[in-house]
Specification:
mainly alpha
Length: 194
């Protein structure tokens, strides 16, 4: 009986690894196709970092600082390369947007803790918000947050319904699982549509 259970776990892990690998390949190829050249390579790097953050946060409720720092560094490189005649201006505005969105998340975190007496979002989510702001324009930042929030609410509700569990105000959810892919998705939207 134990062997059958272990085989099932191994098979599930192999399927999950295969699925994540396929998503990574598709995201890299899409990034390179929507923005050929260096910007596409940077977008592909963003895709891989956001996927890694989502997978780790889903598993452990932790967003590694090293991955967030790498995504932020890529954002600043991307900003510097947008307009070679005004490199510093691009980097500064990228940093300002990142700081502004992180400050908004930190304010929400603080107010929630003040009202509810417990943390609602972690500091990893605040740092990930800085990445979103550094990568995305002012008009796209709220779209990424909205996509992430709606996906998180839908995912939580679906999990509760499928598992026949009650919806609780104290339920936990790894928000980075939803925000990280939303950041990359909005980068793709900015690059192609906006």
């Amino acid at each position: 009986m134990k062997r059958a259970g272990a085989a099932g776990v191994r098979r599930r892990d192999m399927l999950l690894t295969a699925a994540v690998s396929l998503v990574a390949i598709a995201a890299v190829l899409l990034s390179l196709s929507v923005s050929p050249g260096v910007h596409g390579v940077l977008g592909a790097g963003l895709a891989l970092l956001m996927l890694a953050i989502a997978v780790i946060d889903a598993h452990s409720f932790i967003i590694p600082d090293e991955l967030t720092a790498a995504a932020l560094a890529l954002a600043l490189v991307n900003a510097a390369m947008q307009d070679p005649s005004s490199i510093m201006e691009g980097v500064i505005w990228s940093a300002v947007r990142g700081a502004a969105l992180a400050a908004c998340f930190l304010a929400v975190r603080s107010v929630y803790e003040l009202i509810r007496g417990r943390q609602g979002i972690g500091l990893g989510d605040v740092k990930l918000a800085a990445v979103a702001g550094a990568w995305l324009e002012w008009t796209t930042m709220p779209i990424a947050v909205e996509i992430a929030a709606l996906a998180a609410l839908g995912g939580y509700a679906l999990r509760q319904v499928v598992g026949r569990r009650p919806v609780r105000a104290t339920g936990r959810l790894p928000f980075g699982l939803f925000l990280a892919p939303a950041i990359w998705l909005c980068w793709v939207l900015e690059t192609t549509v906006l």
